[in-house]
Amino acid sequence: SMAIVDAVARLLPGVLGDDMSAVDDSFATGLLEGPTYTRPAEYRGESVPDVLLSGDHAAVDRWRREQSLRRTYERRPDLLESANLTAADRAYLEKLKAGEVEE
């Protein structure tokens, strides 16, 4: 019942601090969410991908979308059937399936 209250409440004006929050929720796109990084830039030998530190917002958005597509393809490929994919998304998935995408 709490899930229903949460789902309905977030549709009410003013409940979320930013109206775009509901649009940006991981389940709103039909894809799984990609990895999330925070500071420090390196932790236990693992580094944040350079693109996230680059300041190039378009490249960051593209990387996040590709990571979301990758995670969905690897874990829940069935979701891709109903996802709203762009031509760039489809091209990336084809490269991923062909093994042409670096880890």
Q: What is shown here, in short?
A:
The protein has helices at 2-9, 20-24, 50-53, 57-75, 87-97, and strands at residues 42-43, 46-47. The protein is mainly alpha-helical.
Based on CA atoms alone, the radius of gyration comes out at: 16 Å
Question: How would you spell out the order of helices and strands?
Answer: HHEEHHH
- Percent strand equals under 5%
Number of helices: 5
CATH architecture: Orthogonal Bundle
CATH topology: Trp Operon Repressor, Chain A
In terms of structural class, how would the helical and strand content be classed? Answer: mainly alpha
List keywords for this structure.
two-stranded antiparallel sheet, 103 residues, Trp Operon Repressor, Chain A
Describe the structure.
The structure is a single chain. With 103 residues, the chain is mainly alpha-helical. It has a single domain, classed as Orthogonal Bundle (Trp Operon Repressor, Chain A), CATH 1.10.1270. 46% of the residues lie in helices and 4% in strands. It is built from 5 helices and 2 strands. The chain has helices spanning 2-9, 20-24, 50-53, 57-75, 87-97; strands at 42-43, 46-47. A two-stranded antiparallel ribbon has the order 1-2. Helix 4 (57-75) crosses helix 5 (87-97). It starts with a helix and ends in a 6-residue tail after the last helix.
